[in-house]
Amino acid sequence: MIPLTCPTCSVALKPKSELAGKNIRCPNCETLVRVPASELCSPSATDDEGVNPWPLRIGVAAAVVVALAVGLAGGFVYGHGRGVAERANEASEAKVAATNAEEKRRRAEEQLAVAVGEQARLQNELAAAVKQRNDLQLNPSHAEDWSFFVERFWYAAARRGL
Fold first, then answer.
1. How many other C-beta atoms lie within 10 A of the C-beta of residue 33?
2. What spatial distance separates the first Cα and last Cα of the chain, rounded to whole Å?
3. Which of 39, 95, 125, 160 gives 20 to 30 Å between its CA and that of 26?
4. Furthest CA-CA distance within the chain
């Protein structure tokens, strides 16, 4: 129990120590009275030997804070170094992947150019065959030439997998 007097009516109050630092009502005048913090917790309190323990507590708390700050800073530096190394590895892997993709794109363009050239050549052969067919229809005396050309065209097409 903490001894206390009401500032309004001067009644002696005896609040429980659990109410330290809280407000209570005076049973006589209904005034709110602040219960002071326990004397054992106050910075001016001394222990049984007359020594104030607060400087020691503050020193220990400061040492803990400094140790935590140093630990966090070290962890940050270590983690930052690992992060930089990981990002460097990722960057080199991305560069290799980009080089591979560029090589595949270049090969695909070459294959496309070859395919376009082959397509143009076949279109020219087909146009020549159509022209020869039209000529043969106009001149039936060359029918045997037409059958030879058709056989040659289909043989060439089959050889190319068309």
1. 19
2. 105
3. 39
4. 142
pLDDT tens, position by position, 85-123: 777 788 889 899 999 999 999 999 999 999 999 999 999
Tokens 């170094």: give the residue: 81
Q: Extract the tokens encoding 25.
A: 């009502």
CA–CA separation, 73 and 78 (whole Å): 9
Which stretches within 9-141 are classed as H helix?
54-138
Q: Write out the DSSP string of 135-150.
A: HHHH-GGGHHHHHHHH
Query: With a threshold of 0.90, does the pTM exceed it?
Result: no
- Using CA atoms, how far apart are residues 25 and 8, in angstroms rounded to an integer? 11
Give the integer Cα–Cα distance in Å for 25 and 11: 12
Burial of 23 (0-12, 13-18, 19+ CB in 10 A): exposed
Per the listing, tokens 């400094």 go with: 66
Q: How many residues does the chain have?
A: 162
Amino acid at 76: F
